[in-house]
Amino acid sequence: MSTALLARTHLDWLESEAIHILREVAAECARPVLLFSGGKDSCVLLRLAEKAFRPGRFPFPLMHIDTGHNYPEVIAFRDRRAAELGEELIVRSVEDSIARGTVVLRHAHDSRNAAQATTLLESIAEFGFDACIGGARRDEEKARAKERICSFRDEFGQWDPKAQRPELWNLYNTRVHPGENIRVFPISNWTELDVWQYIEREGLDLPLIYYAHEREVVRRNGLLVPVTPLTPAGEGEPVERLVVRFRTVGDVSCTCPVASTAATPADIIAETAVTTITERGATRMDDQTSEASMERRKKQGYF
């Protein structure tokens, strides 16, 4: 074995696999799109896309399904990063789906996280996307561990974990009929630790809420719930001002920070290396309603 081959790190192997997947999808699919929320995993995807296709333009637009309940600093970062890259950013809003009557919430302040599925399916139909590329990883949650790299969705946008296509020898089947689509996960084999090691190695810019900062929170069901207009403190709940950071970023109404003083990628790598709880398990209220929460949402079209 050559010295150059021995010198390759596990990040090099993961990067190479992801770039191969991105190029395969670009070559085989008629109308792919890369989902970009401004979160850490989608920032990694952008760097991988740069390595796969620069100095040319990306062979797909970027798209974000905006719940309208996102952290404002993440939305500002999303817009700035897309502008820096000079790539097309499509934004579609759950608020528009609510106005059309295709999304109906029980209460005005309900989490809109699951409602993203409807807006995503409407956007896929609007633009005729046949492949949606995203940053989901198998280590995040049990349902995501069942996914293939190229995950088939039927004409109703539904996912059947029992009807997944084989991917022997890293061969990916991207064939779909009109109305069907695939969800593509180039970093499916990465872990949270891999992501942070890659962020450090590549010097990637991220929204600052991923790093330690002070925030008002209340303790609720074992989570640190941020105090916001959407998630106010309940009557009698003591409000604390703690140093926290976000491990994952999503809808304000269901995404919680964790107590942490980690202010750099190196600090976060050290924390992540010893954690025993997944990022979603530690921070997502919507995944704690039942063990099947994510799988149920995915079957309805959720990414």
TrEMBL record:
Name of a matching Pfam family: PAPS_reduct
Keyword hit for tRNA processing:
no
Molecular function as annotated in GO: ATP binding; sulfate adenylyltransferase (ATP) activity
Q: Which InterPro entries match?
A: PAPS_reduct_dom, Rossmann-like_a/b/a_fold, SO4_adenylTrfase_ssu, Sulfate_adenylyltrnsfr_sub2
Q: Where is this region: Disordered?
A: 280-303
Keywords of the record: ATP-binding, Nucleotide-binding, Nucleotidyltransferase, Transferase
What processes does the entry annotate via GO biological process terms? sulfate assimilation
Instruction: List the protein's name.
Output: Sulfate adenylyltransferase subunit 2
Species in which this protein is naturally found = Castellaniella ginsengisoli
Q: What is the lineage of its organism?
A: Bacteria, Pseudomonadati, Pseudomonadota, Betaproteobacteria, Burkholderiales
- What is this protein's gene name? cysD
